[in-house]
């Protein structure tokens, strides 16, 4: 059963240079207790998709389509209803905890604030629950560290605090935006293990450019390029039978596969190329790729790809 279902979603930003088509006609679903990886290069629209789900965008942003969560279209409900859902039912773990955490609030207060807002607990009870959550994300001596400030935590411990804030109200869905970005290999491995444990009974949308992390955590993976999905399948299928040239190029850039970069750069989301958006960087591009935009089609059961040559 789908917990969240996105259909024909568009998120456009007006700028002086033109319209930025950050999310362009996305169809995506997340099942109960599933971890779905959203993978792509920096600037492809991954984070904007997460922010669109939670309606955390500037009022001038144009959003079209539907985002159905447990029978309700999140784009149509009132702001008061959306505030209730944010944090309580759908939580977001933001990237870069150094800038996301409030530097002048104790970490316990930042966790307790979410608990008090959504669960109505007293300050004392909310603090006790904050200590329990810090303990669950393996912060040592949580009853003492709950009173410390973010600058007193290492990078890995700050990321654990961000995860704790996301878990504060036992949400049904967590949107984790680059949760391992900037961490060294050892700390990254610890965070991956922690996320695997804490999301055992929770669905997660994992936004990342790290295929190694996605492989370890995800049930399915969706590849995003220039604002749209180009491939979408089980994690096993993506790694064992990649069909889109972008997916194969992404896999080829892994250290274990020779660190072969994809040539060229992603296109501007204001001036997108005609035809297939990947064709200027694709070794297999033909005349049709330059003229016609391919649809996302199901080539095998549960395996979708946007390519004329798949």
Low-confidence stretches: none
* CATH topological fold name of the domain at 2-78 and 202-305: Rossmann fold
Q: What is the CATH class of the domain at 2-78 and 202-305? A: Alpha Beta
Number-wise, the strands total: 12
Strand content: 25-35%
**Largest beta-sheet characterization:** 8 strands, mixed
Overall structural class, as computed from helix and strand content, comes to alpha/beta
Number of helices: 12
Global morphology: globular
Mean pLDDT: 94
Order of helices and strands: EEEHEEHEHHHHHEHEHEEHHHEE
**CATH architecture title of the domain at 2-78 and 202-305:** 3-Layer(aba) Sandwich
CATH superfamily caption of the domain at 2-78 and 202-305:
P-loop containing nucleotide triphosphate hydrolases
The percentage helix is 25-40%
What gyration radius follows from the Cα positions, in whole Å? 20 Å
Strand order across the largest sheet = 6-7-8-3-9-10-12-11
Descriptive report:
The protein has 310 residues and is of the alpha/beta class. It has a domain at 2-78 and 202-305: Rossmann fold, CATH 3.40.50.300. It is built from 12 helices and 12 strands. It has helices spanning 46-53, 79-88, 97-100, 107-119, 123-136, 142-145, 155-167, 185-198, 211-217, 235-240, 245-252, 287-291; strands at 2-15, 18-31, 35-39, 62-69, 72-73, 90-93, 173-177, 203-208, 220-225, 228-234, 297-300, 303-305. It has an 8-stranded mixed beta sheet with strand order 6-7-8-3-9-10-12-11, with helices on both faces. α5 (123-136) crosses α7 and α7 runs parallel beside α8. The longest helix has 14 residues, at 123-136. It is globular and about 65 Å long. The mean pLDDT is 94.
């Amino acid at each position: 059963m789908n917990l969240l279902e996105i259909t024909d979603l568009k998120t456009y930003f007006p700028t002086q240079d033109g319209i930025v088509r950050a999310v362009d006609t996305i169809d995506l679903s997340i099942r109960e207790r599933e971890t779905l990886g959203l993978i792509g290069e920096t600037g492809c629209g991954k984070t904007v998709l997460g922010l669109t789900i939670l309606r955390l965008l500037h009022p001038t942003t144009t959003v079209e389509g539907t985002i159905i969560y447990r029978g309700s279209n999140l784009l149509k409900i009132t702001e008061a209803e959306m505030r209730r859902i944010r944090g309580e039912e759908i939580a977001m773990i933001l990237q870069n905890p150094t800038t996301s955490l409030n530097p002048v609030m104790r970490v316990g207060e930042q966790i307790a604030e979410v608990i008090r807002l959504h669960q109505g607990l007293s300050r004392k009870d909310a603090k006790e629950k904050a200590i329990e959550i810090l303990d669950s994300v393996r912060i040592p001596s949580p009853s003492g560290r709950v009173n410390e400030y973010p600058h007193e935590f290492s990078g890995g411990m700050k990321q654990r605090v961000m995860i704790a804030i996301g878990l504060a109200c036992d949400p049904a869905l967590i949107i984790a935006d680059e949760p391992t970005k900037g961490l060294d290999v050892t700390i990254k491995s610890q965070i991956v293990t922690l996320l695997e444990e804490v999301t055992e009974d929770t669905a997660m949308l994992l936004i990342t450019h790290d295929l190694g992390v996605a492989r370890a955590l995800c049930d399915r993976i969706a590849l995003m390029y220039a604002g749209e999905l180009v491939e979408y399948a089980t994690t096993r299928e993506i790694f064992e039978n990649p069909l889109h040239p972008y997916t194969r190029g992404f896999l080829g850039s892994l250290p274990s596969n020779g660190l072969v970069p994809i040539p060229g750069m992603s296109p501007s989301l204001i001036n997108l190329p005609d035809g297939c958006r990947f064709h200027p960087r694709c070794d297999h591009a033909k005349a049709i790729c330059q003229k016609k935009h391919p649809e996302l089609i199901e080539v095998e059961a549960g395996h979708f790809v946007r390519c004329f040559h798949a």
